[in-house]
Specification:
By secondary structure, this protein is mostly helical. Helix content is about 65%, strand content about 0%. The protein has 15 helices and no strands. Helix 8 runs antiparallel to helix 13 and helix 13 runs antiparallel to helix 14.
Amino acid sequence: MLTTCDLQADEDLGKFMDYCTYGHMIDNVVLIVTGTLHERDVQSCSGEHVRPHAWPVLLLSRELLDKCHPLGMFDSIATLAVASNMRELYRLVLVDTPLAPYFSEHLTHEDMDEMNIEIMRNTLYKAYLDDFQRFCRDLGSTTSEVMGDLLAFETDRRALNITLNSIGTELTRDDRKKLYSNFGLLYPHGHNELAQAEDFDQIRAAMEKVPAYASIFSKLGFGESQMLDKLLYEEEVKRCVMCFEQQFHYTPFYAYMKLREQEIRNIMWISECVAQNQKSRIHDGIVYTV
């Protein structure tokens, strides 16, 4: 859908739709780098010797490429396995992609282990969302207003998930805070509290100080943190649907993509429930898009 529309779009709309794909590019890079890292670990443990120039052929399987999101594909994606550190990843593969500015300006970690790969993902997303927000702000008018709301929600959700996933890890509070974007309803005071949070109750207290998120957490009973993802997806769907009520702006292209992604998550959830003979739980995970 985006490819066909992109051919007919003017310069601003074409750039806007390009931005819609950058998040998927980041996810694809992380998927392949992580998969490649695991394959190297397996071969190292088994005592196999693999020549460096053979890595792309031996390690980047068709199965791994098939798992990549189609909106995040780029010409050099199949050669990602050749990189053994962040500098090589940028210099050999990503320098000619739209992600190049995010890598060159924001990444400092050299080694590619699981912790640094997750830091890489969140650092790139921070740079990408900050850049996307600036682009939409410069467009002005309704696109700036409505997309600003959706992107603020996205960056706040990422800050929440980063905090939840980093509790009990080696990531310091200062490093955690560096992964939060520079805008959103939580910026800056909510970010300061999230950076200091040590458990779910402290995270909840920080989020509930923002009225828009207090209403979400009010639906969440104590000890029900596993339902948080569904509540956040429901909020995202509601915001995406509402953006169609205004006219003459670019946001519906982004919202349409997000709503289709939610439909895919629903289908995956239903499939898992059927496969595990848990049909009674189907409605527990479905987020309705209408």
